[in-house]
Design brief:
It contains 12 helices and 3 strands. The protein is an all-alpha fold and 314 residues long.
């Protein structure tokens, strides 16, 4: 109990990429730029989808959820990193660490399932185009998204509660940019071997099911695409699918490295780089991957820019 009380009263020190870098000013400036880029691009994409009725379809509804998750994910990390640099210290309270972990696990878990839902959406659109608006009607879309957030938050709550119940009697220096399970467990006093195995098993399961669904969906999608008689239709379908698969590769590549790769293959430097990649870089890239190659989004943006202050076209 004494160790528990000691933990509650003390802060953790985050020794992340800024502290280990030879050029912290450059790293901080890069993180700030990427954050502003992520906020601008994701915010603009959310605005376009909300304002343009042509984008009020299931595909763009799910895309808006992805932008929202990316916006929240990078906001959990980047502003604090910038403030810590300005203040000259990188500390986080015990409760703040737990809350940050809960948010990261919730948003990351929700995005994990969402990417599978987006693959299912493409499967229905291409394999069953006539029944698309029946299978993906608004009620179904909202139910899928609500269930997604609920499952992700419950999973995050269980892991956060169990991780933070350990007594942290060793050094309070976390060799990481943020509060995540693997680096935090290294500071625990008790034996965490069984829990680390459980985290590994849950991580594999939580990633394997959506990945399997994505592979199955795109196997059927690509089979249908290559049998399309129209070259233009085939090109459009492949373009949409390639954008989604690029985002899938970016997300799952980092997630597999962080939560599936055995701890023996981890190092603080690698973990920090991977964390920056999926919490800061990927949220800035995702909207660009979708929008720059999407004629509907670009058309909506052009239409918005052509309007004057009164909402009338110039």
């Amino acid at each position: 109990m004494e160790l528990w009380n000691m933990t509650l009263e003390n802060n953790f020190f985050l020794f992340g990429i800024l502290q280990s870098s030879k050029y912290p000013e450059l790293v901080c400036a890069t993180i700030t730029f990427l954050y502003l880029m992520a906020v601008t691009s994701n915010g603009l994409l959310l605005l376009l989808i909300a304002m343009d009725k042509r984008l009020h379809v299931p595909m763009y509804f799910l895309l808006s959820q992805l932008s929202l998750m990316d916006l929240l994910l990078t906001t959990v990390i980047s502003p604090k990193t910038f403030v810590d640099y300005l203040c000259g210290q990188s500390t986080i309270s015990f409760s703040g660490c737990g809350f940050q972990m809960f948010l990261l696990l919730t948003i990351g878990g929700a995005e994990d399932i969402l990417l599978a839902l987006m693959a299912y959406d493409r499967y229905v659109a291409i394999r069953h185009p006539l029944n698309y608006m029946v299978f993906m009607r608004p009620k179904v879309c909202w139910s899928m998204v609500a269930t997604n957030w609920l499952l992700a938050s419950l999973n995050a709550l269980v892991h956060t509660t169990y991780t933070m119940h350990f007594s942290f009697c060793r050094t309070r220096e976390i060799s990481h940019l943020l509060c995540e399970i693997p680096p935090l467990l290294k500071l625990a006093c008790g034996d965490t071997t069984k829990y680390q195995f459980m985290v590994y098993t849950m991580g594999v399961t939580y990633l394997l099911i959506p990945i399997s669904a994505i592979i199955a969906s795109y196997t059927l999608v690509l089979t249908a695409v290559f049998h399309m008689p129209s070259t233009q239709g085939r090109k459009k379908a492949l373009l949409t699918c390639s954008s989604h698969l690029t985002v899938v590769g970016l997300y799952y590549g980092a997630a597999v490295f962080m939560y599936v790769l055995p701890s023996a293959y981890h190092s603080p430097q690698q973990d920090n780089i991977i964390s920056v990649f999926y919490t800061i870089i990927t949220p800035a890239l995702n909207p660009l991957i979708y929008s720059l190659r999407n004629k509907d989004v670009l058309g909506s943006l052009k239409k918005l820019l052509e309007k004057g202050p009164s909402g009338q076209e110039l």
